[in-house]
Design a protein that fits this description.
Helix content: 10-25%
Largest sheet: 7 strands, mixed
CATH superfamily of the domain at 2-122 and 130-135 and 194-210 and 243-270: Gcn5-related N-acetyltransferase (GNAT)
CATH topology of the domain at 2-122 and 130-135 and 194-210 and 243-270: Aminopeptidase
CATH architecture of the domain at 2-122 and 130-135 and 194-210 and 243-270: 3-Layer(aba) Sandwich
CATH class of the domain at 2-122 and 130-135 and 194-210 and 243-270: Alpha Beta
Distance between the termini: 37 Å
Radius of gyration: 19 Å
Number of helices: 7
Length: 274
């Protein structure tokens, strides 16, 4: 695992997390629905950020787990690490986050995340961290602009990106996709989006089929940054990624104790907002 063992994970203020995400995440944008922000540190320097929060539309996901409630789950809204990090950093970071959530936010019973193969990959780090695969869809939200930048349709749909939407409306457009193509000259990035679920509470029951990882190749979803990758190359990558058995010891995982991760006024200084 190398220096990945030395990584320290702790809750950080939302302001610090947002600045890091804007600078290093491929979208350049923070998640408006974020609730908990974790930072990964090495040599006292922040090397990664994970923002956990509500999905944009919880109604689309409540059915995934039997009898789940609004506050029972979180989505990994943003995960980003700088390029020059030790091998296995991302999967170790995720696993420590899960441990901290389990310890300090017992109301959270499961989490979910998406892997966008057009920008990152098909979810190697999630598979290595014990997530299960529940869905593979065509990615229809990301576009490449003429200058090489990428822009998500969400960037034209208000919220924290209100300035872009305002400009779109002032141009007489009410449809984000049409504005993206006709005005911004964006071209859709072809690829897949994969949905992963992790059960913190192992008594929870997933109500949708769990897909075998072999389905990724069957559907042509094996990608890394928009490029097709083979099953063998992913196996070689996974072989070097931290496996769950090495995550059992909290002492080894360099966990920094945190206050209870519950949404009350005292938590705002730890990057948690209501």
């Amino acid at each position: 695992m190398g220096r990945a063992k030395e990584i320290i994970v702790k809750v950080i203020p939302a302001k610090i997390a947002n600045e890091f995400v804007k600078k290093h995440h491929y979208s350049g944008k923070v998640a408006a629905t974020g609730l908990i922000c974790f930072g990964a540190f090495l040599d006292n320097k922040i090397i990664g950020v994970a923002q956990w929060g509500r999905p944009i539309n919880k109604y689309l996901h409540l059915h995934l787990i039997e009898n789940t409630k609004w506050n029972d789950f979180l989505e990994l809204n943003r995960l980003v690490c700088i390029d020059d990090t030790p091998k296995n950093t991302e999967s170790r970071f995720i696993s420590i986050c899960l441990l901290l959530i389990k310890r300090n936010a017992p109301q959270v019973k499961w989490v979910m995340s998406f892997a966008d193969a057009t920008q990152c990959g098909d979810g190697t780090i999630y598979r290595a961290s014990g997530f299960v695969l529940t869905n593979i869809n065509d990615s229809k939200q990301l576009y490449e602009l003429p200058n090489g930048d990428t822009l998500h349709l969400m960037g034209l749909q208000g919220g924290q990106h209100g300035a872009l939407r305002k400009k779109m409306l002032q141009s007489g457009y009410g449809n984000a996709k049409k504005y993206m193509i006709e005005v911004l000259k964006g071209k859709p990035l072809v690829g897949k989006q994969l949905k992963y679920i992790y059960l913190i509470d192992k008594t929870c029951k997933i109500t949708v089929p769990i897909l075998p990882f072999s389905k990724i190749d069957e559907m042509g979803a094996g990608m890394y940054k928009g490029e097709k990758v083979s099953l063998q190359s992913r196996k070689e990558t996974c072989a070097g990624v931290l496996n769950k058995s090495s995550l059992a010891s909290s002492q080894e995982m360099a966990v920094t104790p945190t206050s209870a991760l519950k949404t009350d006024e005292k938590q705002t200084k730890y990057g948690i907002s209501a």
